């Protein structure tokens, strides 16, 4: 097992550090940035199913569901296709309105999650075209879907999903960009720019990983908190949910993710000097609004940890700590902002002496209802 961990103390840490290479493996042969081409057989062969779909429904569980939420922003923003994201366990019992004009995308690292598999069967019965985004080759979900794209992240052993999440987002981004281009919703230059920026994500993750020593200092300071709040807006709202899930799963600290603007409808009541609030405040059109949210937290003595774009000045002034990530296009920021939140949960869990790779009560793949 020590050999399999490749010199890392835990599989989770190894898998966090594997993300640059895993994402390169995900887009290899698919993303031809210089030529301005995205090539994905499962999409190319079924392109009309997607371009003529009334809507896309994404079904998944856990972290894969969060990847689906990120995809909702990308698909709607770039490809202008309406998207619904559903917990597979709710979808399967909800008598959903799905017809043969629908595309359903099932996202699953293991390809074995029982609820996701059942949701796929239901969608097929209703005549939908079902596309799988799986990591495990030949898994039940990969076999049950009409077509699909593998994430090629390599084996993920740690129960808390890390590289599966970022590679799922990579695949879904490739699909969204391809559809945006085919549907004529993106100019050539904008499309090219997105491809080039996507290609640069692995090296930007490498840079984000270098904040590790600083993140350990932050982790030490907040490891004894009873509660934590994670806030983000737009593309980074799902990242806030995922950040909170990571902390819960492996440290057993209660954490909630919220859209930053919803804070005033509830969570703000919890804020006092004991409450760390992790706020994703990267460069994007909502930046100013997130800064106002940070001011609201500060005036209630909450502890603010900002996840910011390199060179940020404004949040640095207000926050107790900032963790920087490189600059990129707004639609690609989740691939970077996720990284420090993974490391933070990891270090808090290690400091609390938790079983990081096999947290209590959790399973890597949930094959029962
Ligand atoms: C379990 C795992 C999670 C995972 C979820 C969905 O809860 O602990 O890490 O996100 O199942 O799994 P899947 O394999 O379908 O992505």
TrEMBL record:
Protein name according to UniProt: Glutamine--fructose-6-phosphate aminotransferase [isomerizing]
Organism: Oceanihabitans sediminis
Main location: cytoplasm
Enzyme class: transferase
The EC number(s) this enzyme carries: 2.6.1.16
Superkingdom: Bacteria
Gene (UniProt): glmS
Gene Ontology annotations for the cellular component aspect, listed alphabetically: cytosol
Function: Catalyzes the first step in hexosamine metabolism, converting fructose-6P into glucosamine-6P using glutamine as a nitrogen source.
Portion held of the full protein: 247 to 615 of 615
Catalytically driven reaction(s): D-fructose 6-phosphate + L-glutamine = D-glucosamine 6-phosphate + L-glutamate
């Amino acid at each position: 097992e020590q050999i399999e961990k490749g010199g890392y103390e835990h599989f989770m840490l190894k898998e966090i550090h594997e993300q640059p290479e895993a994402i390169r493996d995900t887009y290899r042969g698919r993303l031809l940035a210089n030529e301005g081409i995205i090539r994905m057989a499962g999409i190319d062969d079924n392109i009309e199913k997607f371009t003529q779909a009334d809507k896309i429904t994404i079904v998944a569980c856990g972290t894969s569901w969060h990847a689906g939420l990120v995809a909702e922003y990308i698909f709607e923003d770039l490809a202008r296709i309406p998207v619904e994201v559903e917990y597979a366990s709710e979808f399967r019992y909800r008598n959903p309105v799905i017809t043969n004009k629908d595309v359903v995308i099932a996202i699953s690292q293991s390809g074995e999650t029982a609820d996701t598999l059942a949701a796929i069967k239901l969608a097929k019965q209703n005549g939908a075209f079902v596309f799988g985004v799986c990591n495990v080759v030949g898994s039940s979900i990969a076999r049950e879907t009409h077509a699909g794209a593998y994430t090629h992240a390599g084996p993920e052993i740690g129960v808390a999903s890390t590289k599966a999440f970022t590679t799922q987002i990579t695949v879904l981004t490739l699909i969204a960009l391809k559809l945006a281009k085919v549907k004529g919703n993106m100019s050539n230059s904008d499309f090219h720019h997105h491809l080039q920026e996507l290609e640069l994500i692995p090296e930007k993750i490498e840079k984000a990983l270098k904040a590790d020593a600083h993140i350990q200092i932050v982790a030490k300071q907040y490891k004894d908190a009873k509660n934590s709040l994670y806030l983000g807006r737009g593309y980074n709202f799902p990242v806030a949910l995922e950040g909170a899930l990571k902390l819960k799963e492996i440290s057993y600290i209660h954490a909630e993710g919220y859209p930053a603007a919803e804070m005033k409808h509830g969570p703000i009541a919890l804020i006092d000097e004991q409450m760390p609030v992790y706020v994703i405040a990267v460069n994007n059109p909502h930046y100013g609004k997130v800064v106002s949210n940070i001011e609201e937290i500060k005036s209630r003595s909450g502890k603010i940890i900002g996840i910011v774009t390199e060179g940020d000045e404004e949040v640095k002034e207000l926050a107790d700590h900032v963790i920087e990530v490189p600059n990129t296009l707004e639609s690609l920021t989740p691939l970077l902002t996720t990284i420090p939140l993974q490391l933070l949960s990891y270090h808090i869990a290690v400091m609390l002496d938790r079983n990081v790779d096999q947290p209590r009560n959790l399973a890597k793949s949930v094959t029962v209802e």
